[in-house]
Amino acid sequence: MGTGYVGLVSGACLADFGNAVVAVDIDETRVELLRSGEVPVYEPGLEELVGRNRERGRLSFSSDVAFAIQSSEIVFICVGTPSLPSGEVDMSFVHNAARTIGQYMEDFKIVVNKSTVPVGTGDEVEQIIRKVRPDADFDVVSNPEFLREGSAIYDFMHPDRVVIGAGSQRAMEAVVDVYRPLYQNDTPMVLTGIQSAEMIKYASNALLAAKISFINEIASVCEAYGADVTAVARGMGLDERIGPRNLFAGAGYGGSCFPKDVQGLAATARRGEVDAPLIEAIDTSNVRQRRRMVDKLHHLVGDFSNKTICLLGLSFKPDTDDIREAPALEMVASLIEAGATVKAYDPAAMEHSKQEHPDLICCEDPYTAAQDADAVVLMTEWNEFRNMDLPRLLDCAATNRFLDCRNIYDPHEMVRLGFEYVSVGRVSRSPGETNDTSSWMIPGRFSPIRT
Ligand code: UGA
Predict the structure, then answer these.
(1) Confidence band, pLDDT 50/70/90 cuts, at residue 430
(2) Fewer C-beta within 10 Å: the chain N or C terminus?
(3) 255 touches ligand 1 (CB under 6 Å)
(4) Residue 245 CA to ligand 1 centre (angstroms)
């Protein structure tokens, strides 16, 4: 149920495992689009996977919810759980899905919650179905997803673990069986209770987000004392208890998951009357980090009014057109509000960004975006920015100022090319500055491991 990001990826992958999957959505236009072979989600490899499984007859799309429920043994709830203004999670779509299941089910069903939901949702889903159908025979299971946008299919097919929380043996066995193809990769299965499975998802996202907020704060301390956060992250990450992943300092985390889930967990703790200052601080720190990027730019160019700023990257991370909670959009909003002209280039996210900020000038490549700019700001580390013709970019811009919010360039090289280069957690450099250590440092040894 639900053909959003999680529903489509999970449906297509489960079909690829050999299951018969009907992906159902109440949005008829979306279903028609999917039936015509279009995939309304930007995810590398998804269109091909959907197409292949449709051709083989294992994956179909429908807006007939009754048919979809009645013809299935297992119903996966994959609907959205957006944030309410209070930070609490809007559970209305999950609740509606539960009501609909209760309404149409005719025989035994296993109802699996894949949507990211606060602990306790399994019980709520059970109560809602029971209220609609007091005599119904069903089991509720929690099976959270750990998919990253941009590598969701790989993540589904090669998970670090599969988490299944169930209250009965029959339900546990049935859902374990769905993931049988992963046994050949020796995928660890965490089989537990429903509440614990729900907590695993929230706690994992919160800790991943905390790592980012932590390294971002460390980056600021590095700046104050002349240390290099990339070397610090590498030195920390080689301790196996810490690990190298999610230690990239940058513009702050964005996307549809971390901001929402961290706030959701904090709200869940408050609702349970639990004092959780560390969890509360993850989001506060992230909000500050985004603001810090705006301040850095202000420091670099001065007053924003009547300035032209070039932004490279708008999506919340590379390989997606998703701009939800993207740090770049906060930058756009601050600049436009202060009277700057903002020219941007992003390989996938310009259409969405333009809808949000009609004043944004979208350009066909980085060089056009940099034309006459008072500063170039890299917001998202798309691969194509790593191989840019930097001398050409410098020629296009009105000045040599460059703010790299993702630390993708070598500071010494940028200065050698003639940029006044500012990044995150590394000493800022201007052309002519001497203490260049690049001649004796071993290249590559001091950067964190990107996985
Ligand atoms: C995240 C989790 O990584 C997935 O495991 C989880 O399943 C998913 O949320 C979800 O709950 O559905 P996603 O939001 O797609 O996945 O993206 P990430 O790759 O984790 O990146 C999130 C944000 O953190 C991005 O803005 C990224 O730029 C930022 N980030 C990530 C950093 O600033 N530094 C890092 O070291 C890593």
Answers:
(1) confident
(2) C
(3) yes
(4) 11
